[in-house]
Design brief:
The complex is a heterodimer of chains A (261) and B (308).
Chain A (H helix, E strand, L loop, with lengths): L1 H21 L8 E5 L2 E4 L6 E10 L3 E7 L2 E12 L3 E14 L2 E5 L3 H4 L2 H7 L3 H7 L1 E2 L3 H17 L3 E4 L4 E4 L4 E10 L6 E11 L2 E14 L1 H12 L1 H24 L7
Helix pairs in contact in A: 3-4, 6-7
Chain B lengths: L3 E4 L4 E4 H18 L4 H10 L4 H25 L5 H28 L2 H29 L14 H8 L3 E4 L4 E4 L1 H17 L4 H11 L4 H27 L4 H24 L2 H24 L6 E3 L4
Chain lengths: 261, 308
């Protein structure tokens, strides 16, 4: 009898596991769909637009975050030497900087949640800054992080777009949301996570997540692999082709030219 | 249609016609003046979104094509002094090692970037100004003849004459000690390594003013020497740093080999003073740009580590 009870309890626990994994812990039902679900990088790749659609419960402020994996960034600092000349005055290493970080929101970041709530979930540049570590003193790290944001925004890798999520209520307590991220051509290869956050009554939660991969294909994959795995052969090939091209052009253009000495 | 191509190692997409045009313009300079054009091309590539390390390495790769094309054209025209070129190359390799060691020492002292910036500005402004006024004098007909016999034996001339192992460089029509091209090769090699460039724009004035070579031979000989320097750099960068973007180099070199031929032909139509004054203007423009970069406040006070 004891054995049967134990078996029944075990079976119930096992059966309940997949169901529990599908539901956000204590959260409302929400969904997220990406189009495309993968971004192949071939020689004609010039960035991509990632369309995000989803369903969220009514009454939530929404933020959608697209982020790449954390990386280490090595920077050269510029400063004034002798009070006159702008020079490279040192180096700095910042860790836990995402390869890409874009936040789209329905309303402004200030409106959707208090800073500490957003920071806890990693929404907004101030949340990123809180996670970044470096070999610099706190004040200098903060200054460098501000400069790094400018650099990344110029490259199209970082962005904060307020009022960039369209929300349409369609009854039954649910609303449809839609937004678009621009993945620039220089976004590194790898996996990117899109996270749908909901904020209400000073509380924020992760409502849904989805992944999109940016991966090389065809000639791009072949050349990347050759350059990294067979550097010497790649270098000799590059030099050989360059010399052949140079000489071939010399021969073609040289026909009919006269000796000057 | 965007006409952009994704560059596998640079990791960015760039307009193909923009790259072809850049290659062609730098190729014309290469064929015209015997410079690799790295001092111009690398910053331009960085401006259009190529990472600094990839820009410098891939530029070396395309200079191989441009200098091979230009060397061939000049060799066919009989304007390459191979004997002088080989001696300068040997000196340049040794000087490059000296320069790298010097930079390592200065980096340890925290003074490398200041030293590099000052070297750049002084070299560019000094060479550019001297070439400009000297050529201007030539064009106006007010310059003294530079023939050795007509010169008052200056301190430099006395040193040159006193050096042993003098040999005849038939193609350049000069008689010099082999120590001259070797020693000047070391000097230019060291400066090029410090500045992170091929050194053509320093080598050309050195050949003209210190080795007294004729301008048309200078251009061909400089390209011959640059060819070997850039082969070495390309293979090393591909092997050690994996930063050569062959697709980028291929597009640039299509433009540059054509440009190099146009430049080589144009160089035979211009006289030496016209060539020198054009070169001087380009060097001075780069010097002014560098001065402004040193004085004006940058938009962003950090850059990614790497590059020149």
């Amino acid at each position: 009898m004891r054995g049967r009870v134990l078996l029944a309890v075990t079976a119930l626990v096992l059966l309940s596991l997949p169901v529990a994994a599908q539901e956000p812990p204590g959260g409302p039902a929400a969904s997220l769909e990406l189009e495309p679900t993968a971004i192949p990088v071939d020689v004609f790749h010039n960035g991509a637009r990632l369309r995000v659609q989803g369903e969220v419960p009514v009454g939530y402020e929404i933020a959608v975050v697209c982020r790449g994996v954390d990386d280490t960034v090595e920077l050269t600092k510029k400063g004034k030497l002798l009070g006159l000349l702008w020079m490279n005055v040192g180096e700095a290493t910042l860790e836990h900087v995402p390869a890409l970080y874009q936040v789209n929101t329905v309303h402004s970041l200030k409106e959707i949640a208090p800073p500490d709530v957003r920071r806890a979930l990693g929404v907004g540049y101030d949340a990123l800054e809180a996670r970044v570590t470096s070999d610099q003193e706190a004040g200098e790290q903060s200054r460098l992080f501000g400069e790094l944001i400018k650099l990344k925004e110029r490259e199209g890798l970082f962005a904060t777009r307020e009022h960039a999520v369209q929300r349409t209520d369609h009854g039954a307590g649910q609303a449809a949301i839609a937004t678009t991220f621009t993945i620039p051509a220089r976004a590194p290869f790898g996996s990117y996570e899109v996270v749908l956050f909901g904020f209400r009554d000073g509380v924020g939660r992760k409502l849904a997540t989805a992944q999109v991969g940016v991966h090389p294909v065809g000639l791009v994959a072949f050349m990347s692999s050759l350059a990294r795995n067979h550097g010497l052969a790649f270098g000799l090939l590059a030099v050989g082709v360059a010399i052949a091209m140079g000489l071939l052009t010399g021969v073609i253009f040289g026909r009919g030219s006269k000796k000057v000495h | 249609m965007s006409f952009s191509l994704f560059l596998p190692i640079a990791g960015n997409a760039v307009n193909i016609f923009l790259l072809l045009s850049l290659g062609c313009v730098v190729g014309i300079l290469s064929g015209l003046f015997g410079v690799g054009g790295g001092f111009l091309m690398t910053p331009l590539l960085m401006m259009i979104g190529i990472p600094p390390t990839v820009a410098a390495a891939s530029d070396s790769n395309q200079i191989v094509a441009a200098s091979a094309s230009g060397s061939y054209a000049h060799a066919k025209a009989g304007s390459v002094d191979f004997k002088m070129g080989v001696l300068l190359l040997i000196g340049g390799v040794a000087g490059g090692s000296v320069g790298v060691m010097l930079i390592r020492l200065l980096r340890a002292m925290g003074q490398a970037d200041f030293f590099i910036a000052i070297t750049y500005v002084v070299m560019l402004a000094g060479i550019g100004s001297y070439m400009f006024f000297e050529s201007l004098g030539g064009l106006r007909g007010t310059r003294r003849d530079l023939d050795e016999g007509a010169l008052r034996p200056s301190f430099y001339a006395r040193i040159v004459r006193s050096l042993p192992w003098r040999v005849e460089f038939e193609r350049s029509n000069v008689r010099l000690s082999v120590l001259m091209p070797l020693g000047l090769g070391v000097l230019v090699g060291a400066l090029a390594a410090i500045m992170g460039v091929g050194g053509g724009f320093i080598m050309v004035p050195v050949m003209v003013y210190l080795l007294r070579m004729p301008m048309h031979v200078v251009v061909g000989t400089s390209l011959f020497q640059i060819l070997f320097t850039c082969i070495n750099v390309t293979v090393l960068q591909a092997t050690v740093n994996h930063t050569v973007d062959f697709l980028l180099a291929l597009i640039l070199l299509v433009g540059s080999v054509i440009g190099a031929q146009i430049g080589a032909r144009a160089s035979r139509r211009l006289n030496a003073d016209q060539l020198k004054i054009l070169m001087a203007i380009i060097v001075l423009v780069v010097a002014v740009k560098m001065c402004l970069a040193l004085v004006l406040t940058p938009d962003i006070l950090v850059t990614y580590k790497g590059g020149h």
